[in-house]
Write a structure and sequence with these properties.
t-SNARE coiled-coil homology domain-containing protein, 3 helices, T_SNARE_dom, mainly alpha, single chain
């Protein structure tokens, strides 16, 4: 006859084994160590495979982030040079528009361009 403590321990182990999916009991309710070791090794192999997949995915994400970081750095350099060119063009426009003759030349150019667009619209816009 079993005592109360051993019955509780056996009952808890049976419930835990059933819940966790272990089927490593041999004859007489004793634990089969080799079976548990095989289950443990299978679990470790599965975990190692998952860790490898996560590591590969993480390295892929790192590569993409580095690539995008380089693209953004190049874009920043391009924007900086474009800003410099626009600033110099603005300065030249200020120089041209300062004098009366420069304003007249600029006004003539704008009116000429608008006139050409108007002629193009009349010729091709009513097709």
């Amino acid at each position: 006859m079993r005592n109360r403590k051993s019955e509780d321990l056996y009952c808890r182990n049976s419930i835990a084994d059933t819940f966790m999916g272990f089927n490593g009991r041999g004859r007489g309710g004793r634990v089969d160590v080799e079976s548990l070791e095989k289950d443990n090794e299978k679990g470790l192999d599965s975990l190692a495979e998952r860790v490898g997949l996560l590591k590969a995915a993480t390295m892929g994400i790192k590569g993409e982030v580095d690539s995008h970081h380089g693209i953004l750095d190049n874009m920043d350099t391009g924007m900086f040079s474009a800003r410099g060119m626009l600033g110099s063009v603005g300065e030249k426009f200020k120089l041209v528009l300062n004098g009366k003759q420069g304003r007249n030349t600029f006004l003539f150019a704008v009116v000429s361009i608008l006139g050409l667009f108007f002629l193009w619209y009349i010729m091709h816009g009513r097709a």
